[in-house]
Design a protein that fits this description.
single chain, about 110 residues, alpha+beta, Ubiquitin Ligase Nedd4, Chain: W, 3-stranded antiparallel sheet, about 35% helix
């Protein structure tokens, strides 16, 4: 709330504005999915605010960013396996570790 404002007065002002706030209890996890990865909020505070027919969702907490897995084409796996003389499983693992960089994966496996 706003510092120095009586909570009871704040509720009255919100009611006059047609504003309603609701805190969702027992939130364990909130995940925001993006193309590059996910923002994960553990033990987040989740508040739903409705004002003049518009609903807004607010998440408070500290997010942890989890990068998305890189999709590795089968052709890349076969090429790296062939060039580095390793199994396709080893090639796939090296490609994942190098975020799909073929040259870097081959160099890594050739060390």
């Amino acid at each position: 709330m706003i510092p120095g404002v009586n909570p009871k007065q704040m509720k009255q002002m919100m009611k006059k504005l047609g504003m309603k706030m609701e805190e969702v209890e027992d939130v364990e996890r909130v995940v925001v999915y993006t193309k590059n990865g996910n923002y994960v909020f553990e033990d987040a505070e989740f508040i739903i605010t409705t004002m003049q027919g518009t609903t807004t969702y607010q998440v408070q907490g500290t997010p942890v960013f989890e990068p998305a897995d890189v999709e590795i084409p089968e052709d890349d796996v076969k090429m790296v396996a062939e060039q580095a003389s390793v199994s396709e499983d080893e090639a796939l693992l090296a490609l994942k570790e190098t975020n799909g960089d073929i040259a870097e994966a081959i160099l890594k496996l050739s060390e």
